Each structure stands twice: as structure tokens, then as C-alpha cells.
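Sequence, please.
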């Protein structure tokens, strides 16, 4: 085989101009055309020992799917991906490829990696444009029944894998719409809800049934579900927001990121009064945090009509955990960054927020996270005027299920304890994965854990051995 010519730079992704997109909810990036996708796939060097597949938490055969794109076999490419990933249109958009498959691409040593995520998105969108996708092969029915609690990325993944293995799967979702964090947490401009619904429909086409407005722990306990189902998977995510415990944090205008984004995304507050969910618009909006959720909130504030949207983060830009692309898009759209800044108190009048007092920091020695610890500069206090603040510093699992299940072990933070090799919990027949096990993490990590759980559940159903 002749040696491939190295193309140093990836094909740019067409996108809306920042000054336009900052005021609408349409998707920021437009996606590749077929010609652009083929040209990008040709950049793959077809390594003898590729690192990209081991770098993928769900082990997509990336070189094989890239080759199919290169020769124009888009259906073959998406079929191959869906053998292990039921949600390619989602992961192609929100997966942190730069830290995973693309981060270990051989081209990274000197050049830009192959745009694997963009190509995954392309083939998934291409298939949708062709009409109904071909029905996937499923194994004969086993007669076994599995309850999946939560319809987020972990729940959808485990449901798809088990349905293809012939088991009867029922998902119980607490909200009125499927998708979990994909539907309530990630904004429309980053992940259109029509795409989430499309991927959910694909999972349902495998024979999976979904019940909405069904709160496990209240509507039924795990013990009650086990009277009907042979196994249970907990994929309930991390929906309990963290606050900082600062003076004034209870002022009107201070939101958790969970509430702010749920109001906007799931409950369509941006269409008020067409949808009857109010939200404080705010002239000056502060978002506290440096992760993807903080970027989502800060960018949502602009689209809701804020004159200024400000990020307050205690470390430097280099330590921000958000994806580089999301930080870049936020900067392009006009989000203001106050870095090396720690909040110390909220101030207001008549019960409403008026400003946030902060301290300036310098970076000290690395802490337990491996990042340099912020150290406050004594006497550096200053205030930032604001009428809305969003606290986006993390979240934990809801205690509802653990509080109604005596023999389900959890850590102090509320996460469910599991054997990471099998995702088994302390309770026989119950498995768990995703943010309920890790705390707030990535979509693709949740999906990777769900695949481990699906394999272990299948083995448990087959053998009865715990």
C-alpha cells in the first residue's frame, strides 16, 4: 500500500458567525458536507497500531469506520459505529474527543488530529437524512426482563445493548421527556433536542419501552421493581446541585446551573410566555465555575438577552475543565472571563442579588486533582455588579433511591458504590453506571460504564450467578 500524504490541518467545520449565533438557539456548527467528510477521512494514516480505538470509552473501531467514510460507504460506517454506540449523533457532538480518541491520534505528535467526532456526527446525520434507518439485528427473546432507571446516556446505552441481546427492557424516567442530561442539561445550540429524540427513537425501535413521570423511590422502590424484573440498572445521573455556602446565596436571582439550564432547555423558558416557565433574564449575569456546564449557562444567558455574561473561575484558563471548543465558542460570543477569582459573598437589596464579592488568586502547588491550587491574595476583595448568578461548580446523585433502599451502599457524596469491573452494586440484581457512580462526568464515560454493565447483566441473566 502506498504511503499516505500527510495533510497537517483538519477540514474546518462551518458554523454560524458569533455575532449571529449568540442571539439564537440554532446549532452553532453546521456539520460537514459529504465532500468535506471524505477529505477529512483521507487524513487518517491507517496506522499499524492505532491508538484511537483504545482511546474510545465504547471501543468504536475508528480506523474501519474512517475507511468506510473515505470510500463513501456512509451507511456501512454508521452501521459499524452502532454495533457498539447507539447514540452516534450525540457523541459526535458532545464527546470530548480531544482528550480521548483524537488525543491519541498519531497526527497529534506534530499536526492536528483527524476530526473523528465530526465524522461520527456526519455519518449519523447522513443516515437520518435518508429516512428510516435499517432495523438492527436482535437476538431471539430470552424471556428475561430488565428495568433501567433513567433515560440519560447510560440508561439508553444499557437498554440498547440488552435489547439487542434479546432481553425485554423497560426504562423508567422521572421527567416527562426522555434523554436525561441530554435533554435538560445541554442547550439546544450545542445539542438540538430533535437529535436526542431521534436517538431515543432508535433505542425504542429495538423494542425498548419507556415510562415517563415515573419516580423510582416514590412511585416504586427497587425492591418492588425486583418483584417483576430479573435485574435493574441505575442510570439516574447526578441531579443534586452543589452550592458554596456563601453569605447571600439565598438571594433571589441566584440559581443552581441545574435549575437554570432545566428551565431553559427542558421547560423552554426562553420561549416565555408561550411556555409558562419564567426565568430571570438579568442584565449582568455571572456564572461561577469553569466546566462545560458553566460554559453552557454563560452562553445561554446571552441568548436569553443578558447584556453581559461573565464567567468567574478560581484558576487560570489552562486549568479549566471545559472543552477547549466550548471555551473558544464562549469567548467568540462575547462571554467575559474573570479568571483567578474566588467568590466570597453575594450582596443585594430587598432580597434580590446586586453584586458578587470576590478575591483575586495566584496559583500555588498542585492539589489532589493534579491542578495548581488557587491561593487568595489577602486584601484583594472587589465586587462585580450582577442581577443574576448561576452556581455551576458540580453536582451529586439524588439521595431518593438510596434513602429507600437499605442494602444499597453509597459513599458520603451520595454516589453508588460498585465493582468497576462489572458495575455490580451491593444489592443483588442491581447494577449502576454513569454519573450516579462517578458524580458529574462526561456522556461518553457514562456510556462506557453502561456497556460494561450490560455485559455483566447479560452474564447474570444467563447464569444466575452474582
Amino acid at each position: 500500500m502506498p504511503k499516505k500524504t500527510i495533510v497537517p490541518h483538519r477540514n474546518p467545520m462551518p458554523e454560524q458567525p458569533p455575532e449571529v449565533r449568540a442571539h439564537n438557539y440554532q446549532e452553532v456548527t453546521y456539520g460537514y458536507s459529504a465532500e468535506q467528510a471524505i477529505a477529512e477521512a483521507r487524513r487518517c494514516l491507517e496506522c499499524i497500531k492505532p491508538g484511537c480505538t483504545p482511546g474510545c470509552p465504547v471501543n468504536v473501531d475508528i480506523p474501519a469506520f474512517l475507511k468506510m467514510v473515505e470510500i463513501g460507504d456512509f451507511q456501512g460506517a454508521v452501521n459499524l459505529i452502532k454495533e457498539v454506540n447507539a447514540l452516534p449523533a450525540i457523541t459526535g457532538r458532545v464527546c470530548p474527543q480531544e482528550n480521548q480518541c483524537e488525543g491519541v491520534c498519531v497526527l497529534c505528535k506534530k499536526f492536528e488530529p483527524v476530526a473523528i467526532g465530526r465524522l461520527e456526527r456526519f455519518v449519523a446525520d447522513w443516515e437520518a437524512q435518508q429516512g428510516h434507518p435499517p432495523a438492527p439485528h436482535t437476538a431471539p427473546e430470552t424471556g428475561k426482563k430488565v428495568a433501567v432507571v433513567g433515560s440519560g446516556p447510560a440508561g439508553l446505552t444499557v437498554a440498547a445493548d440488552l435489547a439487542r441481546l434479546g432481553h425485554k427492557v423497560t426504562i423508567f424516567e422521572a421527567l416527562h421527556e426522555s434523554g436525561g442530561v441530554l435533554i435538560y442539561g445541554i442547550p439546544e445550540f450545542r445539542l438540538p433536542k430533535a437529535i436526542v429524540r431521534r436517538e431515543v427513537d432508535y433505542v425504542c425501535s429495538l423494542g425498548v419501552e419507556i415510562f415517563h413521570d415515573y419516580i423510582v423511590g416514590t412511585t416504586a422502590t427497587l425492591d418492588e421493581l425486583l418483584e417483576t424484573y430479573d435485574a435493574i440498572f441505575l442510570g439516574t445521573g447526578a441531579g443534586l446541585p452543589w452550592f458554596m455556602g456563601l453569605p447571600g446565596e439565598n438571594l433571589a436571582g441566584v440559581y443552581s446551573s441545574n435549575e437554570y439550564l432545566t428551565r431553559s432547555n427542558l421547560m423552554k423558558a426562553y420561549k416565555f410566555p408561550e411556555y409558562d416557565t419564567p426565568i430571570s433574564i438579568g442584565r449582568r449575569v455571572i456564572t461561577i465555575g469553569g466546566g462545560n456546564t458553566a460554559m453552557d449557562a454563560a452562553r445561554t444567558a446571552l441568548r436569553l438577552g443578558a447584556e453581559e455574561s461573565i464567567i468567574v473561575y478560581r484558576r487560570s484558563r489552562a486549568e479549566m475543565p471545559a472543552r477547549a471548543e466550548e471555551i473558544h465558542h464562549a469567548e467568540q460570543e462575547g462571554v467575559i472571563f474573570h479568571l483567578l477569582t474566588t467568590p466570597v459573598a453575594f450582596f443585594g437589596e430587598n432580597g434580590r442579588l446586586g453584586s458578587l464579592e470576590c478575591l483575586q488568586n495566584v496559583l500555588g502547588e498542585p492539589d489532589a486533582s493534579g491542578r495548581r491550587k488557587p491561593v487568595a491574595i489577602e486584601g484583594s476583595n472587589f465586587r462585580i455588579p450582577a442581577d443574576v448568578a448561576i452556581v455551576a461548580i458540580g453536582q451529586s446523585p439524588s439521595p431518593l433511591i438510596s434513602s429507600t433502599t437499605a442494602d444499597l451502599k453509597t459513599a458520603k457524596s451520595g454516589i453508588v458504590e460498585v465493582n468497576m469491573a462489572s458495575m455490580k452494586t451491593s444489592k443483588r440484581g442491581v447494577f449502576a453506571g454513569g454519573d450516579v457512580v462517578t458524580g458529574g462526568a462526561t456522556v461518553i464515560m457514562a456510556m462506557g460504564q453502561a456497556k460494561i454493565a450490560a455485559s455483566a447483566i447479560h452474564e447474570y441473566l444467563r447464569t444466575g450467578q452474582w
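The mean pLDDT is 95.
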